[in-house]
User: Fold these one by one.
Assistant:
Number 1:
Amino acid sequence: MTDLKLCETSSCTDLPALDLGQQDFMTQMSCPVFSCDSDSESSEDAFPVMNGGCGIEMKLDNEENSKKEESPKNKVLTVDMVNEGIKVMTYAVRGPLLIRANELEQQLKDGCTTLPFKSVIKANIGDAHAMGNKPITFIRQVMALITCPSLIDSPMFPDDVKQRAQEILGGCRGGSVGSYSDSPGIQIIRKHVAEYITKRDGGIPSDWRNVMLSAGASEAIRCVLKLMTAPGITCQQKPGVMVPIPQYPLYSATLAEYGMEQVGYYLDESRAWSLNSKELDRALNEARSKCTVRAIVVINPGNPTGQVLSRHNIQSIIKFAHKENLFLLADEVYQHNIYAEGHKFYSFKKVMMEMGEPYTNLELVSFMSCSKGYMGECGVRGGYAEIVNMDPDVMAMLQKSISAKLCPPILGQACMDLVMNPPQPGEPSYDTWSAEVESTLASYSKRATLVANTLNSIDGITCNRVQGAMYAFPKIHIPPKALAAAQDRGQSPDLYYAFSLLEATGVCVIPGSGFGQEPGTYHFRTTILPKEDAIADMMTRIKTFHAQFLQDHS
């Protein structure tokens, strides 16, 4: 039995990949590798798993091997018992490219001077604080007080910070954030969420009892999708869910894990990633032979595509969902991130209610998070779902399902509360809060423009304007010689490109194949979150690399 040793910086993505006979994104690892380990080429005791290197060593000591050959027979849990969905699921933004980026970053920390770059820029994921963006003072001050209530008497904190902290602690059992809450979340926070939604939507009421707090939006999305996994008594086909292509890999990964069918509908890149109603019809009709489509997912503003849907687009989707009797999941976690002039965020609930009957009866769940927006509190894990028109019996099943998880993290709930219930004009913290929010979003807007303009200035790359969210999704021209090189390595062309970019420049992006794309096209996703000086450096690296890549493969 091979002895697998995880690297010291291992995470859940550093585990060895299973050989499942698939040429998917997670197993396409062959790439040129720079290394500062002088023993790595000559050592007969260890070699990296797959040529891309993922921080895992396989020891080949014969004595150890012989001792462990029988160990699988002694294991109760074996691979053939594992859920087939987990075997096939992938999650591109935390895949092999990030693992390799971590390795290169560690080499630099260890003093390596032979790499062709001096820093690694991880543009693979929307993690604002990891990119050097600063937290909002008001949020962190209240979080400090609720975790250490003795600080409430300190004169260093403004009165409105103390008042918010006392209000949150008053909703906690025992006055402590270390206690459990109700499974849907702390009642006062759910009420604040409902008040925020009502105000956001121009007075259209939100019932706090239909608000479910969660450990980030992702957990709420998974909880709702889990309700749809059974075929039902009327049809024995497996359930399907329509998702936009390109899509955020949470959806493809979750559907694979749950054994559901992903039904992709393509966004129109030539029209700034907008939606065509005929494409929805095509995708649904083609899927009917292999699954029963239960729901449609919409991501607005878009991830990875950065578009902001027009009100007309939203109306078309609502009409389609109503016509086809589909449950609608609206991923609206980037609702604060709107940059392009003339664009505005419209919630699906607001548009649906303003359309009137019969659309007001559409079953809808919308999702929000404190990980994005101006907050960027990714690690706190706070989010919510507003559930509209769900069957009461299904709602009871959802309540039962989340009760098994006890409750969302209390600090995540508190952070969500502070987003929903920020300082108001006249309160001591308002001016600082307002200035920080405005500065953060203005900087994101500036970076969004810089990224799109720079990418469009590069021969062989085209990029739609980043209207919102935190990402650009440019199309890249990959010459025939590079296509052949990728095929020789058993990689998709955009994965070959992304690995080549990482090894040459230290810039980590995610290939479009991890999100889905029109056949015959190639893309990568980059976040716009690196600080302004870093993102300018990143764009320079990409521009220089792409010119060299085209020359090397001409």
Note: Confidence is low (pLDDT under 50) at residues 1-32, 38-68.
Number 2:
Amino acid sequence: MPNSIRAVPSDPDRIPCVLVVNAERRPLFWPTLYLTRSFAIPNAAQTSIEKVGRVLGFIYDWADAKGIDLDYLLLQGNFLSVDQAEDLAHFLKLGRVTQLWRLQQAAKAAKGSGANTSMKLGKLVVKPGSVARISRREAAVRIWWAAKYIEEMLLKRLGSMSLRLTATKELKELGPMVVQRLRDQAPRTSNDGVLDETLEGLPPEVEDRIDTLLHPDHAENPFSTRFLRLRNFLIWRFVFKSTGRRNEVRNIAVRDVDYANCRLSIRVSKTRPRTVAIADDTAEVFHEFVARHWSKLPKEARKRGMLFTTQKGVWLSLDAINLMFRELRRRIPGLPGDLTPHTGRRTWNDRLSEMNDALPIDQRMSPEEEEKVRKRLNGWSAKSQMAAVYTRRSTRRKADALSEAHAKGNLSLIDFTLAWFFVGTGVRPLQAKRMLMRDVIVYDGPSGKEITLCIPLAKGTDQTDQSRWRRRCPTVLADCLLAYLQLPSAAERSPDDPLFNFENPLQIGQRISHRGPARSPAADSPTQRAARARSANDPPPATAEQAGRGVVADSGPDPRRYWLIQGVRWQFPRHADSVGQTSPTDPETLARGYAPTQSWPACVVFAQTITM
């Protein structure tokens, strides 16, 4: 029998416990210890630990098939040989069915009963010579963790070895070579299996169209009964407006939705549990669904507490959620073929980038701040690189738009260079204003002309320190600057003249600030119009020009502020009063976010602000 894993249920605030067990269901000491030490942090993703645990089980399956006592070999014996490392890598590249078949054949050969016979595994019949392989990405991950584990065992042995000095010296030379040889067997994956940065979320108009049609009160809603309309609208909102993964949304219980404060607690998560905001109308739909439909489900279903069930109280499966999106693609013409639950996370991250870009340039989040926000709201760990992927994709889209506009003649070379200067360096308008002609150093490089930039460090307006830091200019920006410096207006300047001829940083910010197309209130979805008109005492809405530019209009010393979040305007004082706080009024706090208490997550305020 093969080795397997056993996950011990634990509280979300505690360290998950995953055991690697043998055929007798007894834990394997060293693999279990390795998992415990490597993931000894609260809120660690149990699914990730289980994946690593399975890889460790595969390693010991290979050793069992070869008749090797792996613990003795690694800690006291001659260690792995290069040939054994290559054979282990080959075993890890096989599908699980083929691995089990080889284990079965090894067991038959050991008993002398003859090998090379067919074996039935559940509904599958594996014939001799058949080989089931996994993806290159999965194989690379397995080999990477196997090398990591063997390297850890090598370090443990070298740290406590009591053998002769010559044996220690030989092991120091052989061990790293074997580990590296194992790593070299990992297939190159390129972008295979990794998030494709070219995959986009839904365009805003498509997202608004689906949101409008899925509203329970819409006449063209593709679902028949009121129960299905309310339930599926909530699934849509939790997936597309609250960064929920498919399995996270499936595991939402009724108690996880805070109707009064418009909060959703995602407890069961692939990565990290978190609390996110939901829109007012989403909370109202939740209230109607629970009061009029969920409360009438069979007692057993209500006792279980899961929010999303069938009309008979059966807990929804993952396939049922997939079916909902397949039905959307079938019943609503013109939807993209790749519309899936995970499209919601890409769409949400695209909207976050757009809201950040709509802010004045001096109030936008830096790339580092933007990554922290993404990690917090998407439930990624601090070491995750997924946030950087979405940030790079946002930068790529802006770069493509700049290049297209310049190629069509809609953007002058000066504006094109200025925009690329901010995209390529991430500096502030004040630093760009202080750049001098001599701060652009042109020299001959291996592939032609290259540029080094000397960028001022100071950010304060009264700062007198003119210290600078040097950085190599990105290739596209270097090409822009070389063309810019050849313009007659730039060629006539002296080394001490400004690089960009603007009177103040505000002019630079206004020159390149994003000004989206004006969006009239009539273009809003019924959900957005209802949110804007939910109170008869509300002041008149911002003009279309203000809404398009994302500016904050001056409406007196005590303006009533609304937050434009996920397409719905939120009245901040409503929530602030409940925690005894007042709304911030300074633009810097508004742009960076405001969180009065821990129960007020920062996700609510990382958005553009509009004063109505």
Note: Confidence is low (pLDDT under 50) at residues 115-124, 191-197, 514-525, 531-612.
Number 3:
Amino acid sequence: MFDWALKYFRKRRVYELPVSQLVTTALNRKSLDALVSGIESRRDVSDVKAGTPDSQRYMVKMLSEEVEKQFSDERRPLVELVSNAIDAKPSTYEGEYKVQLSLGRKSFEVQDQGNPMTLRQMLTTLIIPFETNKDALLDIGRFGVGFLSNLQYCLTNPDKGNVVVESSDGKNTYRLSFQSSSQDIRDLSCRIDAVDGGTVGTKVNVSGLTIPKNMGDYFKEYFGFFDSKRAIATLNGRVINPPNRSGFTEYRFPVNVFVNGEEKEQEARLAIFHKGDFERKTRDIKYYSQGVFVLSDESLDGALKIDFPSAVEVVEGRDELKYNENFSRVMDVVWDKVLDYCRDHKSPKDLKALQNLTYFFNYSAGNRMRNKLSFKDLFFPNISYAMASYGEEYRSTLAFFGDSIGTEIYSEPNWTRQQLWSPEFLGFKDLVERETELTKRVTKEELVNPTDESTPKLYNVDVLRNDYEYSLVQLKRFQGGNSPFLYANNGTVCVNTNHPYFRTEGGFTSKYGLTASLEMALGSGERQIEEKLIQGGRER
């Protein structure tokens, strides 16, 4: 038994006890029954049995974990209060369900018009860790620790920080008031009293807060995409999640997911916005769970908002989604919708922005792009080949075929982008085979001293090196670039036999051009090329 602090407040009996002792009392069914019955009838409850000293010590440790260490962001517990208010909506509720948020200089309050809590429910679901009566399929909260995390405000600001919960069925109202005289959780106490009358629903007030200036934006981030059909949230009288949002395209779609081993259909949502005339802060990819913000990633062009159904679970800290089968099923449909959106916005400017958006989305989602070939055909209709713009192959290809071939090559300086799209295109080897027609493979000696009529007469071939085989080719579609040489990475050098350097006998410019072009094609540096040219000049 514990010595309850009994007080008279406005001629009503008030009950007060350390939270750790109150929880151990509520965990015992007989003690809970006696406690609830005594308070409801305004009787003395000092003879109610509670837990042992050992159970109290264990409860102090558990409460410390759930109250003080639940969220790394000190603002985050207030989000849990809003989620609880939304979850209180009755299943039979008709009309517009409103959750009212009030933000003051040092206080925050949330009030709902949902199912009220009895005293028993307040003493169990609110303060017993992991105790919850919520439906995992329908409700946002599911861990039973959201309210508890708000009690940290009592500890961070002793004697000034207070958390007060009132719940009423319209006739009877019970109030739980939490405060602490120090930062030690053992000094965290709860006062219980009854109030006559009241408005149906539950109200939670947190005072003694240090409210940052951007707190309003914080709530808009978490609830701005909440489904207004389920609840309308207002902050100081202004709607956070208006029913009609302008500026982006929204999709609602069913997804078959697994729940307790059975396949069920749940609804997911997607919003896309890619136009360039929006604020920088809207350029991101955001993930939501049942309309509540979970996490975000950066996007340089456009914005995506994905709202996952309850079957896609979040971790206990609610800052990450669990990447499982249900997550993959939702993402597959999301990618289909993104593809549909891209097909509806085919202007070059739109497709450029959407190409960037899908890249960031794919990177954010763990490289799970679906219908990749369809996206490739949409974004790059005239591209056949892929090479890294920073690679020697790309520079040599332009020099050999001419700059016009660059319009058919996907060349991206960003390594991760190159890795995303390159596998969907033909590579350097395929380009050489498709864009050239092989005439003959020869050595330098066979070019200098032709042994048969099939070897073409080429001038200035004496500058060629002896340690390579040369593939004599003609270009099928392109006029050719500055260089007549292209190293094919197999010990063979492709030679454009129609290049002007081979058509003028003994030309000084041609010989120097051939020497420099060959060395560049073989990857020599500027100093090596310069030494080669000087050496060739001396020999002449």
Note: Confidence is low (pLDDT under 50) at residues 1-11, 276-280.
